[in-house]
Amino acid sequence: MPRDYFAEMYVAGILADNGWNIYFPRRDKGFDFIITKPVGEEIIVRPVQVKGKYPEVEGRNLPAYGFVGRLTQLHDDMVLAIAYFSTNKHSVAPDHVAYMPRNQIRPQRKLGHSCVPACSRVGVIEPRRDFRKYFDADGIRFMESPDWR
Questions:
Q1: What is the signed CA dihedral for 6, 8, 19, 14, rounded to 10 degrees?
Q2: What is the pTM of this model?
């Protein structure tokens, strides 16, 4: 059974460890939480939606892997945080988290939306070359950048 709430709390914890303030809504109607961080003379505000990716088949090669489905809300400054879990049943945390900006989320005619910044090589999830700046510590730092949008 997927641990979606665990993925949300894990991502919130990592962001808090990196200086972001976390605000949880009274009702979850799209965004899982809002983050803020003072950077220079301004305060950055980003709505966050978290999706957990749990591999279904070990050892499978996928050239593009990520979230495909419906998003209930979108915002220009949003973060789609994709937590990539491994097939290792003993792993307690995601192997990677991608922090994706709104401009990397593509509309899909029948499936809703698509954001596929990772690949799977023999069951190991890794960032695709052009998307490395969105992953893990680099991705958290990039959220502070004026180039985020």
A1: 40
A2: 0.92
Helix/strand/coil (H, E, C) string of 8-71? HHHHHHHHHHCCCEEECCCCCCCCCEEEEEEECCEEEEEEEEEEEECCCCCCCCEEEEEEEECC
Q: Is 138 helix (H, G, I), strand (E, B) or coil?
A: helix
The span from the first CA to the last CA of the chain, in angstroms, equals 34
- Both tokens of residue 110? 């029948």
Which neighbouring-strand residues pair with 101? Answer: 79
Give pLDDT tens digits along the chain (149 positions).
456 689 999 999 999 999 999 999 987 788 999 999 999 999 999 999 999 998 765 667 889 999 999 998 999 999 999 999 886 666 778 999 999 999 999 999 888 999 999 998 887 889 999 999 999 999 999 999 988 87
What does the domain layout of the chain look like in residue ranges?
4-56+74-106+131-142
Provide CB contacts within 8 A for 51, sequence distance 6+: 4, 7, 67, 69, 80, 81, 82, 83
